[in-house]
Amino acid sequence: RSSYSCCYFLLPCCFFDFHGKYSRRQSKKTQYREYLDFVAQVGFVCGFHVEEDCLRIPSTKRVSFIGRSRTYAAAERALIDKQITQFIDSRRSCAVASCDRRVGFNHEDHWGGLCKETDSEPPEDETETAGTIWMPGFQPREKVEQIRNCASLPRDFVDEVVLNVANLLLNAAPQKSCSDKQGGNVNTWNQGESLSLREVAEHLNKETLKKLKSEYGGLQTLLKNNHQVFEVLNGRVHIRDWRKEKPPSKTKPEVKRRLSAEAFKTRLCWFFIHHPDGCSLPSEACPYAHGTEELR
């Protein structure tokens, strides 16, 4: 309905109608085939020559539809738009009331398989608004989708939250001693305590929580994004101890090993800069740079 010159390509997947889940009407067909027929029917009702093709992709749902040309002249657009409105209304009726379950639909007959209400004229108010209002209450998506996974938050804001949460965990419990058997010395490195996400949120100010609330996942997403510093497991936040991380597998494909090596020391080590005990790993073993002179 966007324009007469519009073309489309569609790869149907999940079984949905205009107003909710698609309800089956043909027990003799598979659910997938029946849904494909319905999707093709939508294209025909909208006045397209609908072509069907099977894609060469590793998926069980690979049947696609292409609409490249119209079945009517541009001058008949208002009439077709009125028919589309009737079609949408009939699907709404089918979702609520019982539908006239005719067997299948013919590609030559655009209206096969519709509810009986379709044969009647649309209400007067819908006739007047056809072409100006597609359907009451319909809200299209914005042209530019807002990124809400904490990635677009200001860097200064993220750094401040990370530092506040890390200090909260470090000060939540007395310093713990961890034995480092290399050289027989006892190396004390404070890993702090683990707290629930709720406990962490209670210690953040209202302005910070307000900013995070507008993001999908909020605080948890922000902490998971900062994988270098935090580990979030079962709703609890821990400071990551890189000594416990598994070394990279030697069986990795060469390409992945090369990419991993290229990413080595491309960012500064947060622990080297901010942790009171520094980094738990020596410089040569840490994947992050201990100072700007090590940055690659």
UniProtKB/TrEMBL annotation:
One of its GO terms (molecular function) is zinc ion binding. A zinc finger (C3H1-type) spans 263-293. One of its GO terms (biological process) is tRNA methylation. Keywords: Cytoplasm, Metal-binding, Methyltransferase, S-adenosyl-L-methionine, Transferase, tRNA processing, Zinc, Zinc-finger. It is found in: Cytoplasm. It catalyses: uridine(44) in tRNA(Ser) + S-adenosyl-L-methionine = 2'-O-methyluridine(44) in tRNA(Ser) + S-adenosyl-L-homocysteine + H(+). One of its GO terms (cellular component) is cytoplasm. Residues 263-293 form the C3H1-type domain. The keyword DNA-binding does not apply. It is an enzyme of class 2 (transferase). Its EC number is 2.1.1.211. The keyword Transcription does not apply. Adenosyl-L-methionine (AdoMet)-dependent tRNA (uracil-O(2)-)-methyltransferase. Belongs to the TRM44 family. This is tRNA (uracil-O(2)-)-methyltransferase. The gene is Trmt44.
